Amino acid sequence: MQKYYYIITYGCQMNVHESEKIAGVLNELGYSDCNDINKADIVVFNTCCIRENAENHAYGNIGMLKKLKAEKRDMIIAVGGCLTQQMGKADNLHEKFPYVDIIFGTHNLHKFKEYVLLKQSRKKPVIEIEEDSGVVCEGETPLRTSYPNAWVNITYGCNNFCSYCIVPYVRGRERSRSSENIIAEVKGLIEKGYKEITLLGQNVNSYGHGLNDLSFPKLLDKIAKLDGNFRLRFMTSHPKDFSEELARVIAENPKICRCVHLPVQSGSDAVLEAMNRKYTSAEYLYKIEILKKYVPDCAVTTDLIVGFPGETDEDFEATSSLVKKVNYASAFTFVYSRRDGTVAAKMPNQIPEEVSKKRIMELVSLVNSLTRGHSAEYVGKTIEILCEGYDDKKEMYLGRDEFGRMGYFKSETDVIGEFVNIKVLKANGVSLIGERV
Ligand code: SAH
Ligand code: SF4
Ligand code: F3S
Question: Is a pLDDT exceeding 90 seen at residue 331?
Answer without folding.
Answer: yes
